Amino acid sequence: MRKNIVAGNWKMNNDLAQTQTLISELKEQSKTTNAEVMIAPSYVNLWSAFEATREGGEIEVIAQNMHFAESGAYTGEVSASMLKSIGIKTVILGHSERRAYFNETDESLAKKVDAALEHDLRVIFCFGEELADRKAGNEESVVGSQIKNALFHLEASAFKNIVLAYEPVWAIGTGETASPEQAQDMHKFIRQTLNDKYGSQVADDMTILYGGSVKPANAKEIFGKPDVDGGLIGGASLKAEDFYAIVNAF
Ligand code: 13P
């Protein structure tokens, strides 16, 4: 059975005091039991966020990225075992901003996925086409190869620790959202791609999130689509009320 997840990707927002304030506001919001709720603060605030959410256990604190190496001379980077050592269980990998600004490739992402899974971290693996790809009608081939290149070396059993997040680049931070039908069509294609390689069990059990300008006003319609199992939320996750309006859209 696949899960519903709503995860807030805070990106490079919120210092320590702002992180603590937002977490206490989030804890005051009314809760739903229909979706797992996650937040991804910056590295520097992960530990304090983890501590602040320990009680109640309703919000999981997750990481935005990690390096594939175990340790060593990689200035500015953080390893899977460092994340594990402070209690982190889930990491976002392959976000389009990491691909665009930090040269992450399918090949380096495959290594990151392997390192995360070796450390029993759950991976939220992001991918999505750019506007030019969609205009050219290439969105399925781009998304298909992003998934295949970074994940299809894995055994079927590895997929129980993977969540997929379809984030069309043209809809991130732009206010432009894929229509619920566009999201559904792509999510169906993603599930079919998994089915073709790994069979129906892996495909049916896979949680596939949509990300790209999800807001309280459009969450219900997007989450209402049969192959959309939740969302990865950027801007709207920075306001407790908006984030929980999205969570409660389930
Ligand atoms: P926005 O919700 O701000 O468009 O960002 C989406 C995103 O990148 C989540 O990872």
Structural account:
The protein is 42% helix and 14% strand. It has eleven helices and eight strands. It is globular and about 45 Å long. The model has no long low-confidence stretch (mean pLDDT 96). Bound molecules: 1,3-dihydroxyacetonephosphate.
State the low-pLDDT regions, or none: none
What's the gyration radius in Å? 17 Å
Class by alpha and beta content: alpha/beta
Bound molecules: 1,3-dihydroxyacetonephosphate
Averaging pLDDT over every residue, what do you get? Answer: 96
Described by strand count, sense and barrel closure, the largest sheet is: 8 strands, parallel
Identify the overall geometry: globular
Order of helices and strands: EHEHEHEHHEHHEHHEHEH
Share of residues in strands? 5-15%
Placed side by side, the strands forming the largest sheet appear as 3-2-1-8-7-6-5-4
Number of E-type strands: 8
**How many individual helices?**
11
**Termini gap:** 16 Å
| Percentage of residues assigned to helices | 40-55%
Structural key phrases:
eight-stranded parallel beta sheet; alpha/beta; globular; 250 residues; 14% strand; binds 1,3-dihydroxyacetonephosphate
